[in-house]
Write a structure and sequence with these properties.
alpha+beta, five-stranded mixed beta sheet, 20% helix, globular, disordered N terminus, binds cobalt (II) ion
Length: 193
């Protein structure tokens, strides 16, 4: 019994020693990652030359009407568009004529077009008041209207002549179609130059 007891004791010592002898080997600190010299200071300069964005501002008046002899002819189509978004009247003209050709095929009660000349500030009011005034869609004797053509359908044409002085006196002047819902797209500026 004595023997086995001491055996047991030494076994215990051994075990303890073994236990204590194993200090977790210190993991050698990994060599500090070589810091890359100043995070690539020469980041290639951004060379993206922005292509001069096709001048979007110029689009506001990209389709000037062709004017000759104090007159112009503009077209309206079945897609609710004029082919011009501005008309420049020569200052030398005392009168000016706008002819409108409807190059589409839809009828006047479906896709009617006219040309109304008025102060830009009066466009929405004239259009609103004209909505119930079929078939011209201009309120009778609307004093805000400087000039206007008849309302026409596909294949038709019409024209109106007015005193340039009336436009000159009005300031910011526009031309538009008073058919219900058309003035938003069918509208342009009239300038005198
Ligand atoms: Co129209």
């Amino acid at each position: 019994m004595q023997f086995s007891r001491s055996l047991l004791a030494s076994a215990l010592v051994l075990a303890l020693a073994a236990c204590g002898e194993a200090p977790a080997p210190e993991a050698p600190a990994p060599a500090p990652a070589a810091v890359p010299a100043e995070a690539a200071p020469e980041a290639a300069p951004i060379v993206e030359e922005q292509p001069a964005e096709a001048a979007p501002a110029a689009a506001a008046s990209a389709k000037p009407a062709v004017v000759a002899d104090c007159a112009t002819t503009i077209e309206g189509n079945d897609a609710m568009q004029y082919n011009a978004d501005s008309i420049t009247i020569p200052a030398s003209c005392s009168q000016f004529t706008i002819e409108l050709k409807h190059v589409g095929s839809l009828a006047a009660n479906v896709m009617g077009h006219n040309v109304v000349v008025a102060k830009a500030a009066d466009v929405s009011g004239i259009a609103a008041d004209g909505m119930s005034a079929a078939p011209s869609f201009i309120k009778p004797d609307d004093a805000r209207v400087i000039a206007h053509t008849d309302m026409i359908g596909g294949g038709g044409s019409t024209k109106v002549t007015f005193d340039v002085a009336k436009v000159k006196d009005a300031g910011d002047v526009a031309f538009f179609c008073s058919f219900p819902g058309h003035a938003g797209m069918m509208r342009g500026a009239i300038n005198i130059q």
